Amino acid sequence: MAVCDPTLEVELGLLADGASCVIGCDEVGRGALAGPVGVGVAAIDGTLGTMPVGLRDSKMLSQPRREALAPLAVAWVLHSAVGLASASEVDEIGIIAALGLAGKRALAELFAAGVDVRGSVVLLDGNDDYLNKALATPLSVMTRIRADQDCASVSAASVIAKVHRDRLMIAADAATPGYGWSGNKGYGSAEHMAAIGRLGPTGLHRKSWLTISA
After folding, report:
1. Binding residues for a divalent metal cation, per the UniProt record (predicted)?
2. Residue 2, domain member (yes or no)
3. Does 125 count as an annotated binding residue?
């Protein structure tokens, strides 16, 4: 199947229906064994310029292409943010609640930057509204399968969040070498699993996720 570039069709429809902004939202690091889980948000309104050429879901882009696109995506949207929940928070409250916590933190950054979060529609990739589970006052959230591939605001959030978290894991690899985080970004590669068995887990590992044979 040919890969199609994302469009603003869904977002423009939501704006036409009265949303003050549309906030594209995507998660990163959900399945990793080490490092935080992140939620990226990218707010757009009717004042957008031209979409960055080549913008797509972060999983469809090489690391160099993501690195090149991330600042273009940040400049293109109205405001963006990445919220994080730590490995220890994932252990304490579980991954779904941690996603909600990270999303809540990202939305708080948008609110602090002046985005009308309450009057916006959050366009969330997937079919699970983990955001409202974490909020005292519900927001207008629209879940959509493949939104990260089809909806440009969500593609932008995906790229921004992925690059942000990757840089954190590359820095963590320099500070705590041996686990290959600059390459595997905390996911369970063979190299990473062997290092856990040899060196043991670190403070960045989701210890409740680890099963290490004796």
Report:
1. 26-27, 125
2. no
3. yes
